[in-house]
Amino acid sequence: PDDIMFPLTKKNSSILSVIQLLFLHIIFISSYNHGMTNSAATNRNNVQKLQSVGMEKCDLPVHKNLPRASVLVPLFMQNEKLHVLLTQRPMKLKSHPGEVCFPGGRQDVEDGGDDVVTAFRETYEEVGLTKSSFQPLCRLSTVESRNGLCVTPIVALWRPLTENSENSIWSCMKVSEDEVEAAFAVPLEFFLEENGNLAEKTEIAWSGGRFTMRKYYYQEESESSKRTFKVWGLTAHIVHEVAMIAMNKNHDDNDSSFNRTLKNKSKYEGDLWLWDDTSSYWKQRYFFLTQNRILHHYNNIQEASSDSA
To answer: Within a 10 A sphere around the Cβ of 218, how many other Cβ atoms?
Structure first.
């Protein structure tokens, strides 16, 4: 009825406007918090996928007699996303000058043969971050560097998950100028191939098998500088695998690396002789038999391991 209608005076119109603004504010806050919740849940899920890989030692047999080294893949939260910390080596260094890499290096006697100890010791020496500040997530299978080192990647999460400036990874970092030219962060999702950031991908012959060589160019833009970093080779191979395990929906967590497959799924593995009709002689192949009785075979173990790259 007309007698109980809210009279639309100038004053009441202002009240309605205030109510509408409050209503829109509530909707915005609710949507923002929902987005924050989804983002946090996604990050937790990504971390759990990496943890599911485990910390079990997983070396390729072909790396058995190589000198050992370790690298740390440091993950941390920034702008509500998982980022990976990378460093650039000074041009004055004799080994890999100017190249982008993870904190890491050769295993010392003082490490007691422990790859995890090596990774965190080198990280502290290069960027001043202590082992107690990280939660180890997983150990990836070994890869061979171009210098003939057996490299073990250790993936770890920076413990303070908040982005408070007082406990951020940047405020705790003490970079060694002798070993590090620059330290920078890249969103881990950057290295997923479906995001279109892969500049180059080629198959090369390496150590008797095939190796997928990836190359990325990451442009860092900040208030003080604008830099472009080339991430390639062993570093690109490792960070791509970490991104695939954590974030690729179509990636089989149990197949995160060929060597992990050998450890967790294979009952039998080794050399197998097959008759080759083309050459009319017996040919040696490398094989492994999974628990679901599927036989995989390759020319050699190096080719088999590169098949997962």
So the answer is: 19
